[in-house]
Amino acid sequence: MIENGAVLPMFYLPPVDFFTKLAAFKPDVVFEQEEHFPKQTYRNRANIYSPDGVQTLTVPIVKGSKNHTKTKDVRISYDFRWQRAHWMGLQTCYRRSAYFEYYEDDFAPFYEKQPAFLLDYNAQLLELLFRLLKIKQQILFTDTYEASYPNLNDLRNAFSAKNIPDTEQKPYFQVFEEREGFLKNLSIVDLLFNQGPQAVNYL
Fold first, then answer.
1. CB 27 within 8 A of CB 51
2. What pTM was estimated for this model as a whole?
3. What Pfam family is a match, any one (predicted)?
4. In the list 100, 121, 128, 177, which could disulfide-bond 94, CB 3.0-4.6 Å?
């Protein structure tokens, strides 16, 4: 097991704060896959900046994926066309941003294919984000569930989808900031589509 590193959750299009914390411990990071899946977290949702303020994109999961299902076993539901809704949401929110067209061909395939498991989907998206942000980080998963990690910084519950983090976040240009001002800790795609290659320097 890695020492003096961190254990992190696996999120869908994670918030900026996730990458800030990851940067402090990389490359000594492992990702949790054995925990019982917690509801209403960034594991299956992301916040973006819409013309009306914060818009939450939620990946629906198969019913029965409650607290007693391991994260690695949670299946994505395709009962309705959520991928089309997410992709249209991203286009509506970021088509006017400086770099959306630069990156859209990288993201578009994720809103067409239908992977079975949420963890696989999130991990593939995270690998893409690492590549686009030029972050050298291997994705390693936990082998067993541990209630605590004496030799690791346990960040599994360090991110709340309900509360804005206390971490200092320097403002950067956002497409709709004239409406609501600067919104902290949105999905990393907000930073990427607005700042492009400069996003890694921001982090």
1. no
2. 0.93
3. WbqC
4. 100
Count of alpha carbons within 13 angstroms of residue 8, beta-carbon side: 30
Any idea how long the chain is?
203
From 190, 171, 192, 191, select the one nearest 182 (Cα to Cα). Answer: 171
Residue 12 half-sphere exposure, CB side, CA atoms within 13 Å?
Answer: 26
Contact criterion met (CB below 8 Å) for 183 and 54: yes
Q: What's the farthest any 2 CA atoms get from each other in the chain?
A: 47
Q: Are 195 and 172 in contact (CB under 8 A)?
A: yes
Contact status, residue 61 vs residue 44, Cβ threshold 8 Å: yes
173 contacts 196 by C-beta, under 8 angstroms: no
Task: Please list the pLDDT of the chain residue by residue as tens digits (203 residues).
Answer: 445 699 999 999 999 999 999 988 888 999 999 999 988 899 999 999 999 999 999 999 998 755 589 999 999 999 999 999 999 999 999 999 999 999 999 999 999 999 999 999 999 999 999 999 999 999 999 999 999 998 899 999 999 877 766 677 899 999 999 999 999 999 999 999 999 999 999 98
Please report where in the chains the tokens 């079975």 appear, as a residue. 116
CB atoms within 10 A of CB 32: 22
Question: What are 195's two structure tokens?
Answer: 């700042």
- CA quadruple 176, 182, 183, 186: dihedral sign: positive
The residues pairing with 31 across neighbouring beta strands, listed in sequence order, are 8, 141
Residues ≥6 apart with Cβ < 8 Å to 56? 45, 46, 47
